[in-house]
Each structure stands twice: as structure tokens, then as C-alpha cells.
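Issue 218. Parser rejects a valid record. Input:
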Amino acid sequence: MFTILPIKGLFDQIEGFYCDGISAGLKANNALDLGFIYSDTLCEVEAIFTNNKFQAAPLKHYQMYDKNFKTNFVLINSKNANALTGQKGIENIDTIFSSLDFELVNPIMSSTGVIGNHLPVEKIIAGAKKFDLNSKNAHNLSKAIMTTDAYSKTTMYEVKLEDGSSFKIGAVAKGAGMINPNLATMLCFICTDANIPKEDMKEALLENSETTFNAISVDGDTSTNDTVLLLSNKKSNVYDKDAFKEVLRLVMHDMAMLMVSDGEGAKKAVAFEVLNAASYEDAQIAAKALSNSLLVKTALFGEDPNFGRIASTIGASRVVSDENKLVISYNDVIVYNKGEFVFNEQIEQEAAKVLKNDKFKIICDLGVGKYSFTAYGCDLGYEYVKINADYRT
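Output the parser choked on:
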């Protein structure tokens, strides 16, 4: 048995982890743009990365290490993705780390921002030399890694086991645009003092990503830099496999939901719940098709309960389905019922009322099996176009 308790505060409360964010001049107006995570003992580390074929230089640099490497330092910059920068992009990372005076062991770099530009190496080196590795300021770090994010994204938990022992886990993340299943466009850094074995780390990340980061969509695009990094300094000397998997799921779900809610210009976060599909794969396909559909997203923005777009998207996904078994609901308001037309004036008003909420479910019962999956998405409106039209400027 175990108890999971949310903690008010950030992951810098975990013993042995230090962090901060500063301005290195990458962004205008002295905005925070460069951050670090440091551990005073070596950490076990695991990561999952984007499925994009053009992985950015920081991801390639990470994968050059031995698979069982440990680290004590992560450097994160915003404004520049260091993607599509060739071998020079990797060499620039080595140049940065070799220029720092800290005692770094297998340092990791993570970047986010505009694709196709080389890093401003001198600015990053000069900025990183200002770091105080005794600092505990996860709030500044969360600000420094933001790009188009409207707000920072953090979460923190403590797990108490039946014998009274405990461990902590927390995360900081960024992500608002280019969010799509197959790992969302985002960076997420998870720190824990759990004494988790190396072999359990990747398993827990992969298992939980399926229903969290791989189940969200803002705009259907997947970036070159997507990273989920898990660091464990093992200082608690406490571990329970089931407890860790569950609390990691909560951490990753928290971060994923904050990203969807912050979808560039988004006002609504929506769960697309597909029930009674013929297979688990069908449930995933249908739910993700709904979360990705531009027609569905714009209907959400207009608060239009256009169930025809929902049904059409399910049919276009080519999963096993039958219009005479399909039931579509907005929360508990049924708008389509097994081939029966129930969408009268009263039902439309009730459904439209649901769509005025910030958060709600669209439930699609396919009625052809026993499998289910929930994907998460948001509306898409004018602000998204404005943000992305001006992104490089």
C-alpha cells in the first residue's frame, strides 16, 4: 500500500537537486532564456524522444553517450532549437560544455525554439558561467524554458509507503504549440530521489507516455526536439515499483494537461473518450483522430455542437464502426443515439452549454467491442494563427 500526496511547491525541494534560470540575451527584454538542473550526486538518467525523423542536435548528442551513463548536469536553452544544424550543431554543444568551469559528468543539453539556426555559442557560454550551482529556483527555470507558453508548467508529489518511508518526484515542462501524439512537442524534466533501478526507468516512461504525452494534440505537428528526461539521484533510498509507476503517471498527466490547456491561444481543453471499440488500436486511432481534427477544433472554438464533424472524423479514421451502434455525447448530453436523430432544439442548447465550459468530454461509444482510449485536445482559433505567423520575429 502507498499514499500519493501532492506537494505545494516545486521539484527544487528534493534533496540534492539544484536549478535556476537566467537571461543570456537569447530573448529580448532581458527575459529568462537559459536554465540548468544540477545534482550534487550522479543521477541515473533515461529519456524518450520525438519520433520526428529529423531529431535535433541535443538529442543526437545525448544518444552518443553509453546507454548506462550517469549525469549531474542538464543545460536548457529556449529561443533556438539547434535543429537541422548538422554536425556543427553537435560540436557546438561540446564547445559549450568544454568552456564551463563546473565539474560536469556527461552533461546533457536540451533546446527549444526556432529550427534551422546555429546556437549563439558565446552568449550561452557567457550566460552559463553566471550559474550558481547552489541555487534552488525552479520557478526561474520554468520561465527560462518557455517559448510560446502562456504560463510555466510544474508539478510535485510525495509518495509515502506503508512502512513510513517516502520519496519525492517533481517536474518542470514547456509546451504549447506543435503538440501532437507521438510524443508532444515539449520538453519535460522529471526529478526524483526514488531509489529506482535503471531498468525500471525506461519501462515506466514508455508505459505512461502512451496515455499522457502520446495522447495529446494541439495542432497535429510533431517537433524535432521533444524530450522527456527522468533523473534519479536515489537519495531517499526508497522505492516501490507500483507506487513509482503510478506517481510518474500523475506527473506526466499533469504536464500533458497543462500543455493542452495552454495550446497557443486555446480556451478549451477537451477529452475525447472512445468507448467499446473493436480493438485497443481502433480506440486509439479514433480518439487521436478526433483530437487532431481541424474541423473538430474549430467547432470547439465556435462552441458549435456539430456532432456531424465528430461522426465524420470517426468514419474517416477507418476503424470498425456502425452508425446504428454509435452514440455521441457532450458530457452527459446525448446528441446522436444509434442511428436515431435526437438533435432537436433543446438538445442543441444543452450541448452548446457544455461547450461553453473550459473543460469537458466528448464521448463516442462505438458499440462494437470492449476497448477504450482517451485522447486530449483543445480548440483552435485566431490567436494560434497570429502566434505562428509571427513566430520567428
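Fixed in the parser; the record now loads. The CA atoms of residues 4 and 159 lie 5 Å apart.
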